[in-house]
Fold:
Amino acid sequence: MEVEPFLFNIVVLSLFVNIAMSLYGVFVRPSLIKKIISLTIFSDTINTLVIVVGFRHAIPNPIPPVVIEIPPPPQYLRQFVLQAVDPLPQALVLTAIVIGLAVLLFLMFTTLQIYRIYGTTDVRKISRLRG
Structure:
């Protein structure tokens, strides 16, 4: 039994377990702070999953998606196409991190305002108080 596919499967399985636990925190926990923490964990786990999916683990020696010879010879281009890791998931994850930070700051500010107005971050109490 090869170790690398086994470890890769363990990583993917643990990411899915992490997604399930964070969704549980978002949907079940009554505290807004715990919901925000769970949402942040969910976002980071999805970003990690996108990076793992974008990585070519079946290729024996993956190379970074950077062309180092200008102009590249045809043999180098063939090798580059077959072995280079896809840069698109990495770019999408960088964008998602920036957007996630902005959303996190908005949610924290909103939670702070809710606490100032209602004196609690418990969603059950807030729904009874809004009258």
Notes: The chain has five helices and no strands. The first helix runs from residue 3 to 28. The radius of gyration is 22 Å.
